Amino acid sequence: MTNNCVLCHPESENVIWKNNSLRVIRVSDPNFPGYFRVIWNSHISEMSDLTDEDRTHLEKVLLTVEKALREAMQPDKVNWAQFGNMVPHLHWHIIARYRDDSHFPESIWGVQQRKSNPEKLQILRQKADHAAELIASRLTALF
After folding, report:
1. SS3 content of the chain, % helix, strand, coil (to 5)
2. What is the pLDDT of residues 40-64, one digit of tens each?
3. Higher pLDDT residue, 1 or 78?
4. What is the rounded distance in angstroms from the CA atom of residue 115 to the CA atom of residue 100?
5. What do you get for the CA distance between the two ends of the chain, in Å?
6. Residue 109 neighbours by CB distance under 10 Å
């Protein structure tokens, strides 16, 4: 861990599941309710820094999150993103996407394409609550 890393020392996170290796958080983004982040606990920056066993563990978690999102939220697409340019700490963004969301087909960090639909967002928040419960229960059962 480094003293200035926001992922090593978060100010606040909505952790829905964790173990000694990593944690899964629900990101509070009003336009993307189905937005989760998987964060490796120790401060490393690249996938190749993981052992084969740790990489397999991470991949199982990532796929479990995606499958739960797909089941609970029925998105048109699930985006995975792993950059680390601004925060060089291994983490993945997993985001449920819809053809009519505010940025589709752009990334959520791209140019907004349309206004968000407040009624649909409310429904998606409820589905994301269910997705968070599924993620936590499935990861607990798996590990």
Report:
1. 35, 20, 45
2. 999 999 999 999 999 999 999 999 9
3. 78
4. 9
5. 24
6. 9
